[in-house]
Amino acid sequence: MMTHCKVISLICCSALYAAQVHAIELCGNMAQGELIKATASGTEQAFLGETQLSVTPEGTFLFAFSRDAGKQHNLQIATQEGVDNYALDVKPTKWDIQKINGVSPRKVEPTDSDLRKINKEREDLHRALAHHTETSFWQTGFIMPVKGRTSGNFGGQRIMNGKPKSPHQGMDIAAPEGTEVHASSDGIVTLSKGEYFYTGNVVVIDHGQNLSTIYAHLKDTTVKKGDKVKQGDIIGHVGKTGRATGPHLHWGASINNTRFQPLSLLKLGDNSFCSNL
Ligand SMILES: [Zn+2]
Hints:
Elements: E1 2-3, H1 15-21, E2 25-27, E3 35-39, E4 45-48, E5 51-53, E6 60-64, E7 72-79, E8 82-89, E9 97-100, H2 105-108, H3 112-130, E10 149-152, E11 157-160, E12 163-164, E13 170-174, E14 180-182, E15 187-196, E16 200-206, E17 211-221, E18 228-229, E19 234-238, E20 248-255, E21 258-259, E22 274-276
Bound molecules: zinc ion (ZN).
Residues 152, 168, 170, 172, 250 line the site of zinc ion.
């Protein structure tokens, strides 16, 4: 295999040079916390940094930049003719500061026995997000899972009862308790479980190619692990289980275990966010 543009210099790896090697279409906002859809026909393998991406037979693959992603990332694409490297510039995103008061003190300062439960919750969530399905269910597109008011944005730096906590890993949508929550796209349920310390009753759906969505703080769940769901199916109802101060849906999104802005899923089918490298 020949290696084109092996990060000799930035000029070598500029979009101009890459365009002479292989046409690649990138759809999405090249910024921290955003999901990107890429298509390059003939792609057999693709890597973003060290992470191998799952590629469809058409040469389409997805990746996301984390909330704190650095300014530059290397995308490597292998075809029959060789390996191309692309230097991707990532714009910074300005994150909110979210002050949340009235949280139960124990949910801000967990006890030792709480920490054991939190570890189990993290393991279960990690296992569900690592579930791998080759079928690209995500190509159905995505809808908002519930109608309501946005009460917390993805990436916000949270200050709970005056104490700085980890950034927000999803978006919050406030709606009355009992409001139906819908599957945002087709997929397979990889977690449907209750009474976790932070997420309460939670559902995770695998949409294929290592892309999953997370639905937390549910009053109840109406699906079980292994169920196939279609976009719009009811998967549970809005509640305030886990660490919540009022009824809302926490909607999260993850690809290759990188959390990203769930709203960027809604742009997946919109070609106005696409450009060619
Ligand atoms: Zn949330």
